[in-house]
Write a structure and sequence with these properties.
110 residues
Length: 110
């Protein structure tokens, strides 16, 4: 069974780290994919979903694991094989990018 099948079969709800290993395997399988370098030069996008898709790969992964899959920051660091501070930095950068348009629109209304 591949990592995507293990995740989709609900392994993420079982305790004991099964999901962490499945997600880590999935990240290793996807390691050959790279971000489009032009994404950082695109104009500001107002849709949160569209902004999420334009985040750099590691920011998307960290955000998805913590916010969508509800892993702890510690588990996310383990899955991504990163230091805790690196994951926190990725999450902060994701937050800043996702909510940049909200800050711009509020300040332009003044």
């Amino acid at each position: 069974m591949d990592s995507i099948q293990r995740i989709s079969l609900g392994c993420h709800v079982r305790p004991g780290g099964v999901a962490r290993h499945a997600y880590r395997d999935l990240l290793h399988e996807m390691s050959g994919f790279h971000d489009d370098p032009d994404t950082r030069r695109r104009p500001l996008i107002w849709s949160t979903a569209a902004r999420f898709s334009n985040l750099p790969y590691h920011q998307r992964v960290a955000f998805a694991l913590v916010v969508i899959e509800e892993f702890s920051v510690e588990d996310t660091a383990d899955i991504m094989e990163l230091a805790l501070d690196d994951v926190r930095t990725l999450l902060a950068a994701s937050r800043d990018a996702l909510f940049a348009a909200a800050r711009v629109s509020r300040s332009s209304d003044a």
